[in-house]
Specification:
Helix content is 39%, strand content 21%. Strands 6-7-8-9-10-12-11 form a seven-stranded mixed β-sheet, with helices on one face. The chain has a five-stranded parallel β-sheet with strand order 3-2-1-4-5, with helices on both faces. Helix 2 packs parallel to helix 8 and helix 8 packs antiparallel against helix 11.
């Protein structure tokens, strides 16, 4: 998840001349471990207006620690006045640009203590996505609990902890040319996680997953709007124990707890009939052919309900 922080969050979080608020420390810990914290390029303008030379210089240097929102949207003609009203001060212009990035879905959340921004967010229908520090901490804790609420016999594991030499991966390696390189670069090195059914040294089932935002999933450029869950790898070797069903229920549990819109996966046609039957039984439907023109994309709509 991408979380944009306002200048009034960044400065007290980074100013070494003042004591760090415990809530800001908790926010940074929760957000930085599993999510991406971003700053808007316009925050530089805010900081540059600080009349305290030492603090201004220090904050501009510390700003470089953060990922800057790439290619932030700009207002079209008359768009700013229509959405948020004409800016009266330079600060208003910065606030409006930050809200525009949220409005255009460049980020999931905006965290700010600015009551004016919270009020403006109501006018563009983004009130639930503009959070105070307290609200952000509660939401992140809820998300963290949801990510790790597991069904019996299912463990949440980091991909890099799995032994690729295990026999479980032989068929995956045979089906997917370059599987080892993909697993190393896209799963292990990125900290991707998986739901697994493991007993001792035996791996009975595995579902590697990742969260995406509005991905294009077919070779005719059809996408899935909003935040979605992709089951990158889904394999069950132990039959007769409903493990595949448990893995799917785990995916649905995750989608529900994280307000995701869709769950999807790709399947090589004619090679995994049991998996195709399982997806169909649990409400997935064929959506098209994947971007490589090879596999069938199976999608289950999972409308989210905001808390």
């Amino acid at each position: 998840m991408r979380i944009l922080i306002d200048t009034n969050i960044f400065i007290p979080m980074e100013d070494s001349a003042i004591q760090l608020d415990t809530k800001l420390a908790e926010l940074h810990r929760l957000a930085s471990t599993e999510h991406q914290i971003l700053v808007h390029p316009s925050s530089k303008d805010d900081i540059s207006r600080d009349k305290n030379d030492a603090r201004r210089s220090s904050m501009l240097q510390r700003l470089n620690k953060y990922v800057e929102l790439e290619s932030p949207p700009q207002f079209l003609e008359n768009e700013e006045e229509q959405l948020l009203g004409s800016p009266k001060k330079d600060n208003d212009r910065v606030d409006n640009l930050i809200l525009l990035a949220l409005h255009k879905n460049c980020v999931h959340w905006l965290v700010t203590q600015d009551e004016g921004i919270h009020k403006k967010a109501k006018t563009i229908g983004a009130y639930e996505r503009v959070l105070s520090v307290d609200q952000a901490i509660r939401a992140l804790l809820k998300t963290k609990e949801g990510q790790h609420r597991l069904y019996p016999n299912i463990k949440n594991v980091l991909c890099h902890t799995l032994n690729l030499n295990h026999k479980f991966f032989q068929s995956l390696r045979a089906d997917y040319d370059g599987f080892d390189a993909w697993f190393s670069e896209k799963c292990s090195k990125t900290g991707r996680q998986a739901w697994a059914c493991i007993s001792g040294d035996d791996i009975h089932a595995l579902a590697i997953y990742k969260q995406e935002s509005s991905p294009i999933v077919t070779n005719d450029n059809r996408g899935l709007p909003g935040d979605v869950l992709k089951l990158c790898t889904f394999k069950v070797v132990k039959r007769g124990f409903k493990i595949g069903e448990l893995l799917l229920m785990q995916a649905f549990n995750y989608a529900s707890d994280n307000n995701l819109q869709f769950v999807y996966a790709t399947v090589a046609p004619g090679q995994h009939e049991m998996l195709e039957d399982l997806f169909s039984e649990f409400g997935f439907s064929e959506y098209g052919t994947d971007s490589q023109g090879r596999d069938i994309v199976y999608v289950k709509e999972f409308p989210s309900i905001l808390p």
